[in-house]
Amino acid sequence: MTNKINIFKPFLFIVALLFSANTAWAYDPSVADTNKTAPAETPAPVQKQETKGFDAGKMIMEHVSDNHSWHLFGHYSISLPVILKTDKGIEVFSSSRFGHEGEEKAEGKYYAYELKEGSVVVVDEVSDTVDEAATASLTDLSITKNVASMFITMLLMLWVFISVAKAYKRNPGKAPKGLQSFVEPLIMFVRDDVAKPSIGEKRYERFMPFLLTVFFFVLFSNYMGLVPFFPGGVNLTGSISIAMVLAAFTLVITFFVANKHYWLHVIAMPGVPIPVLLILTPIEILGLFLRPFVLMIRLFANITAGHIIALAFFSLIFIFGEMNTGLGLGVSLFSLVFTVFMGFLELLVAFLQAYVFTLLSAIYFGSAVDEGHDVHNHADDHLPERTTN
Fold first, then answer.
1. Edge-to-edge strands of the sheet including 112-116?
2. 22-31, 90-99, 101-110, 176-185: the lowest-pLDDT one
3. Rounded to an integer, what distance in angstroms lies between the CA atom of residue 119 and that of residue 83?
4. Which residues neighbour 189 within 8 Å (Cβ) at sequence distance 6 or greater?
5. φ, ψ at 117 (rounded to 5°)
6. How far apart are CA 23 and CA 261, in angstroms?
7. What is the pLDDT of residues 342-385, one digit of tens each?
8. In angstroms, rounded to a whole number, what is the distance separating the alpha carbons of residues 306 and 235?
9. What's the CA gap between 19 and 14, in Å, rounded?
């Protein structure tokens, strides 16, 4: 019981650390230029001042989607390198060439480029239209916001685990302290509550490197995404491509380690009549690919939804503020209270999603290496080894 309680100490520490850094992003709606009146000698009807209304959808999508620059605050952002492989060669330049809103042309060595809905396209300089043929041959290898955040998360993980490993070497056999006391309960949690029950006492060790890597990568990425200032605030695990790659690793490892018993139950389950197999086998094969698909969608949807909900309530402040200043102030109090609540909820969801992804991966590995439930095989894997007096 004591060990299980200790597992949640790191989570409570993270709650206290990131409480003030909940998902609050500042947004300053831009105002369009007022229309100029005609000269005095040709009087024209007075036109009303036009303003550009607050676009909640655009603001939310800018924060949850990938980008070629890293927005900090206001009109300040970090320009990231754009790396393009074209049919004529490699282009490398700064994303600052696209301008603050990404609406300017970036003149390269071979082509002129523009950003269309976050994607780089080739523009014909004569007709000022998209060159479909050149764009089709374009490969974007840029260091985007998600890629930069992934590198930061990887460096953070390397620093944490190398520091902890050195601490164990310096103090062998001693009680953990400092960063060790944060990492060790999580490692033991993955080993004792995820890997062993799902895979078995005799087979779990070969899968521990992957399970620990994916658990801490998702965990660190989720919590970094809750910090609203650099180097956090990136919806990394809420990116469908990141979630897809993580799920693909689980699928490939499952296929690689699967034994004869596993494939026999997938293709031709023993004891099932052939007419039933004609229906059951396609379902089983489809299920092989649905499992990682479910992993991908669960991680992507849960992380992205939390960001969108919090940003939607912040958007209410500006939407009602455009109607009436007092109304905007009143809604801001409600939005702030709800965002604090969402912050605590996302702290829990961030941990749960790392745990669920790792647990389901372990269950899939366990089913792939299971050799059948009899007295000589996997049935005794979960039981403690007998000791003789």
1. 106-107, 112-116, 119-123
2. 22-31
3. 12
4. 7
5. 55, 40
6. 47
7. 888 899 999 999 999 999 999 999 999 987 754 444 444 444 44
8. 10
9. 8
Amino acid letter, 314: F
Q: What is the DSSP letter of 376?
A: T
Q: Determine the length of the chain.
A: 389
**Tokens, residue 216:** 């801490």
Q: How far is CA 186 from the centre of its chain?
A: 20
| pTM given for the model | 0.78
Q: Residue holding tokens 């060439």?
A: 97
- State whether the Cα torsion 374-378-380-382 is positive or negative: negative
Q: Shortest CA distance to 221 belongs to which of 293, 297, 149?
A: 149
Residue 259 neighbours by CB distance under 10 Å: 12
Question: Distance between CA atoms of 369 and 259, rounded to whole angstroms?
Answer: 6
Q: Which bin fits 276, alpha (ψ -120 to 50), beta or left (φ > 0)?
A: alpha
Which among 203, 295, 292 is positioned nearest to 255, based on CA atoms? Answer: 292
Centroid of chain to Cα 95: 23
Dihedral class, residue 128 (left if φ above 0, else alpha if ψ from -120 to 50, else beta): left
CA–CA dist 318, 58 (Å, integer): 13
Residue 382 and residue 201 in contact, taking contact as beta carbons nearer than 8 Å: yes
Q: Which of 168-172, 173-177, 375-379 has the lowest mean pLDDT?
A: 375-379
Rounded distance, CA 192 to CA 297, Å? 27
CB proximity list for 389: less than 8 A, separation 6 or greater: none
Say if residues 144 and 66 touch (Cβ distance below 8 Å).
Answer: yes
